[in-house]
Design brief:
Layout (H helix, E strand, L loop, with lengths): L15 H11 L3 E5 L7 H9 L6 E6 L9 H4 L4 E4 L5 H8 L1
Parallel strand pairs: 1-2, 2-3
């Protein structure tokens, strides 16, 4: 979907540890990060990315509504949150613009 809407996907990760490693190696402009990861939750990954040597913009996503996470989204230092049902290139552009 992202490629069809003009974004270049430079990598994928199956869990938080892979996401941290891939971000360090690939240095993407932004990371689309699921909140529910099998090892480290997306909020913690976003916090770690924010203090990395080359911090990308992070957009969190989940099948749940953002209101379900209280202040976790803001505290993660992510750029924003988009529910998976509303995920689109346009939604990302609004947050990253």
């Amino acid at each position: 979907m992202l490629e069809a809407e003009g974004y270049e996907v430079v990598g994928e990760a199956a869990d938080g540890a892979e996401a941290l490693q891939a971000s360090e190696q690939l240095r993407p402009d932004f990371v689309l990060l699921d909140v529910q990861l099998p090892d480290i939750n997306g909020f913690e990954v976003a916090r770690q990315l924010a203090v990395s040597a080359h911090p990308p913009n992070v957009v969190l996503t989940s099948s749940r509504d953002g209101a379900d996470y209280g202040t976790c989204i803001e505290e993660s230092r992510a750029r924003g949150f988009v529910p998976k049902a509303e995920l689109s290139g346009a939604a990302l552009t609004l947050l990253l613009g």
